[in-house]
Structure formats: C-alpha cells, structure tokens
Design a protein that fits this description.
31% strand; Jelly Rolls; binds fe (ii) ion; 6-stranded antiparallel β-sheet
C-alpha cells in the first residue's frame, strides 16, 4: 500500500470516529498535561473604569421594573462568563430609596460593601452593611436589599455560579409577588448570637454554611492587625481566614475568604495554588506580580489570580495595603486537588 493510500485510509478512519462520536486519545492535546491547562488569565478591574459604567446603568435600567439587580459581572478576558472558572465577581449599585426584591438560588454569594451603607436581608435577618463588611448569602438563603441612605450603595459581589452551572445544579426562585421578604429577626441578630466566639449550648446548627451573616470590617481589620503586630510577618504581611464559628471551616461550602495586610513599601511572599482567587483592595495601593507581569491596583479595584499562577503583592509607600480575597479552595480540598506552594523552596502540599 502506498503512503497516499495509507493517509486516505487514516482520514477515512478519523471521519468514521467523528460520525461515531468518539475521539482518538492520541489526537487530543493535553489529556495528560503535566500542569493545568487554563481558560483564564490574570486581570484587574479598575474602579475608576467600572464605577462610571455602573453609574451610567442608573439611566439604562430601572431597578424593579427591568431588573432585580443592577450589577456588572466581570468576565475574564479568556472566558465568555466567569471571572475565573469557578467564581464570578462584579460590582452592584443600589440607589437611595431603591429596593431589590427577594430571591434565592443554589449558587452562593458573598458581598463586600465598598461605598454607602444599607441593608441586605438574609433569611429574615436585616443585616446592616458598611464599608468593608463581608455579608453572606449562602445557598438557598432568601435575600433582598434595601437602601435608606443618601448616597448610592456599591458593593463587590462574589458568586460560585460558574462552578454551580458546570455541575448542572443551578436553581433560582423569586419571593412571593416579587416583594421584600418578611423580617423575622432583629438587625444583625446572627452577629449578636454568634459573633462573640460563643455558640448556643443547646441548639445545634446543622447547615453547611456559617451561621454568621455578617463579618464586620471593624472587627475583622482589628483582628488582622492585632495578629500581624503580635504573631504575623512584619516584612511580608499577614493573612487571616474568615471561618464558620461552628466548624472552623469556610464561611460557605464553595468559597472561603481572607483578609490580608501588606505593610507599606513591602512585598508579600509569593504563592501559587490550584484554587483561583479574586482580590479586592480595601485600603492602600500597590501592584501584584502575577506570573512575571505587573498589575497595578488601588482602592476598590479587584483582580483575579488564576489557578497555578505565581503571585506576590507589593504595597506602595504611604499606607499599608489591606486586601480582601475570596477563593474556590473548598471545592478542591475534598477531592485531593488542593496543591499549593510558597516560594522559594517550600514543598508542594497536597491534601
Ligand atoms: Fe441573588
């Protein structure tokens, strides 16, 4: 048989594979790649670029009539949807006097208040939000927003929608008649009940997420800075993880959150890990080196560090940088997929 005949025969073979909806493993790139193959890149969303677009949306869409949520999602430049492969972040704006009606869904959400103040109601508890507060809306928790203040309220949203969609597990429903939900607890009741490092002795919390609906920034920042001053790393900064006070685990099943301080003029250690991470700048300014490229940031910017990318943060002179971050790390841990390194020589840790 000539080589031409052989090539024709092979072409016919591959065509028949296609028709049978099978593929030859030896033709698929990356099936046993030595390292992760990514469909996401590092990127910074600058508040100076996106806040004006968000404010323009006030004239484009009415809250209540045309949409339940005036929000701009951040799509990674290499993805159609999702800031990373598991997480989506974005900014949301509510005007004074507006309300965003109650709904609930299987994806989990966190919010980080950046401007203004107002209420998110979570399963009947009105939660008052101020700058830097972390507020949880866990899976299937009813949530709505009320804004009684005088200036627009803007926060960072973070959700696990790309992950949940990927599992074919997204469900959502509106509250009765598209209204606000009925209040059944006092303001910040979960903080009063669980925020003192105590849990009720005779009442068991069996849900998969934290019983705290809010982690006030005032408390979180004080805790971080106290830890940093007493036991942290004076030159490279320190991080603390927000936890479920019942289990010590992540605040919600798919997302864990951190608060990090990098002293002014200093740089953090360098890390890389399989989970992706979205950082939001609460204080200070600086830049991060991600896989050798520089990404500048200042207050209210957020940026994504994709899986398995080396990164380190540099804080500018003038003030310490405080970075909030959320990570899809809890998704990796149960399946032995967590892999992380700290430069330069720390061994790989795999659970
Ligand atoms: Fe929602």
């Amino acid at each position: 048989m000539t080589s031409n005949n052989s090539a024709e025969k092979n072409a016919d073979y591959y065509e028949r594979l296609k028709a049978a909806h099978v593929a030859a493993l030896w033709t698929i790139p990356g099936t046993l790649a030595a390292e992760p193959t990514l469909d996401e890149v590092p990127y910074v969303w600058h508040a100076t670029d996106v806040f004006p677009l968000l404010r323009e949306a006030i004239d484009v869409v009415d809250l209540g009539d045309e949409t339940d949520r005036r929000a701009l999602n951040a799509s990674n430049p290499k993805r159609i949807f999702g800031t990373s492969h598991n997480l989506v972040a974005g900014y949301q704006l509510v005007l004074p006097g507006e309300t965003a009606p109650a709904h609930r869904h299987s994806p989990s959400a966190i919010r980080l208040l950046l401007e203004g103040s107002g209420h998110t109601t979570v399963d009947g508890e009105p939660v008052f939000m101020e700058r830097g507060d972390l507020v949880l809306t866990p899976p299937y928790a009813w949530h709505d927003h009320r804004h009684e203040g005088t200036v627009p309220m803007i926060w960072l949203d973070g959700l696990d929608v790309p992950f949940v969609r990927g599992q074919h597990a997204q469900f959502a429903e509106e509250y009765e008649n598209g209204e606000l939900q009925a209040l059944n607890q006092g303001e910040d009741a979960s903080v009063a009940r669980y925020g003192a490092g105590m849990i009720p002795a005779e009442r068991e919390w069996t849900k998969s997420y934290s019983p705290l609906n809010k982690y006030p920034y005032k408390t979180s920042k004080a805790s971080l800075l106290n830890f940093h001053a007493s036991e942290g790393q004076p030159s490279t900064g320190s991080s603390m993880e927000y936890v479920n006070p019942i289990t010590g685990g992540p605040v919600i099943p798919t997302i864990t959150c951190f608060l990090t301080v990098v002293p002014e003029g200093q740089k953090s250690k360098a890390y890389r890990h399989t989970p992706s991470k979205v950082f939001c700048v609460l204080e200070g300014s600086g830049y991060s080196i991600i896989n050798g490229e520089r990404y500048d940031w200042e207050e209210n910017d957020f940026f994504v560090v994709p899986s398995w990318h080396w990164y380190e943060h540099h804080a500018n002179e003038g003030s310490d940088a405080i970075l909030f971050s959320m990570s899809d790390r809890p998704i990796y841990e149960p399946f032995g997929l967590l892999r992380e390194q700290v430069a330069p020589d720390a061994p790989v840790k795999a659970s």
